[in-house]
Amino acid sequence: MSLFDAVASENLETLQRALSATADVNVLGPGRTTPLIEAARRGLTHGVKLLLAAGAEPTWRDDEQETAILKAGANGHREVVALLAPVSSDDDRDLAESFLAAYGASHAPEYEYDASRLHQKAVEVAARAANFVGHEEPLKRLERRDRSQDLKTKK
What we know:
By secondary structure, the chain is mainly α. It has a single domain, classed as Serine Threonine Protein Phosphatase 5, Tetratricopeptide repeat (Alpha Horseshoe), CATH 1.25.40.20. Helices cover 64% and strands 0% of the residues. Helix 1 packs parallel to helix 3 (35-42), helix 2 packs parallel to helix 4 (45-53) and helix 3 packs antiparallel against helix 4 (45-53). The radius of gyration is 17 Å and the shape is elongated.
C-alpha cells in the first residue's frame, strides 16, 4: 500500500505499516503533493505527527505553491496548524492563521464573538486574502453567512 493510500484510509496503523515499508516519506503524488500535505489537508493530526517523525518535509510546496500548514489552515484544522507552526515559515504560519480566522469566524461557534465592526472587517480581509491565493472556501462561507443573515433580516 502506498503512503497516499494509507493517508486516504485515515487509519493510523495502516499509515505506520506503510511508513515502515517505504524508503521515501516525501514521495510525490499528483500535483506534486506529498503524504504530509494530504494528511494536513484531511486534518489527520496523528498522521501528521507520524509523518513528521519519519522525516516528512513540512516546507515542500505542491503545484499550487502551498505547504502542509496552508492546506490545514484553509480547511480549518486548528490542531494540525498548531502542530506544523514551529516547522513552518513565518509567512505560511501567518497565512494559515488568517485562514483559520476566516474559517472560525464564519463557521465555528467557539470563535464567533459579539464582534466589533473592526473584527468583522479583519475576518473579511482574511477571507479575501485566502481567496486571492486560491482558497475560495473561506470567502464562500462568508458570503453564505451574509446571505443567511439577509434572509433572517427580511423575515
